[in-house]
Amino acid sequence: MIVGMRKLTLLCRAADRDAVLFGLRGLGLVHVEQLRQPVGDGLDEAKQRLTYLRTALDALPDVLPEGVQARVSEDPIEEVIEHVWRLVHEADDLRDELAGLVQEEKRIAPLGDFDPQVVAELAAKGIHVRCFHTPLRRGLPRIEDFITLELSRDRDRIHFALVGRTEPSEDTLGQATEVRLPKQSLSAVRFRIAWVRDALERNALRLAERSGDKPRLADVVHSAFEKVRYLEIRQGMDLADAGQELAVLTGWFPARNEAQIRAAAEAFSFGLLVSEPGPHDEPPTLIENPRWVRPIHTVMDMIGVLPGYRETDFSPIFLLFLSLFFAMLVGDAGYGLLFTGLLLAARKLPLKVPQGLFPLLWVMSLCTIAWGALTGTWFGIARLPGPLADLRVDWLTSEGAEQNIMLLCFFIGATHLTIAHLWNVIRFFPDPRFLAQIGWICTTWVMFYAARAFVLLHDFPSPLLYVLAVGAALIVLFMTPVKRLKEDWIGHVMFPLNLIGNFVDVVSYVRLFAVGAATLAVASAFNAMAAETAQGLFTGLAAALILFLGHTLNILLAMMGVLVHGVRLNTLEFATHLGLQWKGRKYSPFRRREMDEDEA
Questions:
Q1: Domain tally for the chain?
Q2: What's the whole-model pTM score?
Q3: 11-62: pLDDT as tens digits
Q4: What is the residue range of 134's domain?
Q5: Where are the transmembrane segments (predicted)?
Q6: Last residue of some domain: 250, 284, 318?
């Protein structure tokens, strides 16, 4: 459910801004809108300071190398920060040097290992040595009065040296390209590379030893973040009069908290105007749902979608259908049991995961077990033991089961899209547009029978043509209010394409069958491969490795299928039929400790 918002316009004396903002931050209810670009009054310095501190914090590792123990030092925190930054700069310099050395090694390796000082001594005696490379197809050049020494050759080029008492002319060199002589030998470059890499390891160990101070540094970063946020809001307040004695702030707060806002106005002596959102306002979105629905918020946060304030929150439908889609796309009860076991083990580990992720995975794992049991799919095993075989449903496993599952996919798709239009019927009623939504429900079920006929070669009931005609008429007549025809006439032009898209959307749910069948086929293929391999002890170990790697790969592919297909059917097909554009912005009230929430 999307929580109703109220618009707040706050007026206070410019001299009282700090006291007012202190009160609002303590209240933690107002999503502040900046009325002007915040600048000045130490804001730039505070942002630079925050970046400086965050870089130091990020440089300290969360996972320590083996044998390294982090210690909490007694040094002042500023000394800790300076020491970390010295190590950061040192590491940057070492990485830059290493990159240059590796490039130089690659450049001079074809020339071989020699001392450049010897070449300089020969030059002083009038003997000149120059290095070149030439295309392999041209062969090694022979130049009069010069000794040609082949140094190396690779797939494309020959590297060679010319030794003589004069400089070779451009005409005699042909297509040869000179290679600049190194300043140090190849062995010296390689020695330096090894030293720099060792120095980087020592640098990383010193940083790891400083990780004991990471909680202290995190507190400093948080304080710096709060200062930046405070200054952004303070400097973003508009000055309401020419004398700059009055300051204005606007924002949004949940309608249910109006009494608290008014009490704060009295306590901190500021004027306020509370109003309903205007037609052109875009309030932030705050979603609150029952506890059993909240796990789906994790998915919405991960993929970065949020309904707009005036749009619809379909979180319960999203959770129910995504769980069903997950089960059908993975399709294996054995994998569901494996997920359940991993979740039980993960609960005992100190993992940082989004709130609601574990409950969401519990639901999806149990749904996968249920679907896999009904279809008789356990790790892709062909012959199931009696108890597992008894759980199968004949309609999903007997002859013709593939067509039955495809039919079920079309039915799920039509039902899913029908829910979207029924939701719109409730939203629009008594506006005549609700009749257009009834028309879309009619056409959706006609498209279900059309998919059944075209894909599964069943008979198409001819009376449904009348249903299609009635549905199309309702859509055309009531999809756009008369007063908006001049602006929204394009919807009528696009209607034939939208009708075809309705058919395509219903058919697209067959991906639930296709991906699930692919998961089963891959599992069965690896099982067969392992069975053919296992002929003895060592081949049995190889077969076990094949099973482990094969099923791991299959699970990863199934997870990708859930992200690509399961999420898409909700956030695109269903959302499109619901009229949802995902144009919301998150409700983010001005309060303390908000950095942790923003970065989570």
A1: 2
A2: 0.77
A3: 888 888 888 888 888 888 999 988 777 777 788 899 999 999 999 999 888 8
A4: 114-184
A5: 317-345, 357-381, 405-426, 438-457, 463-482, 503-526, 538-564
A6: 284
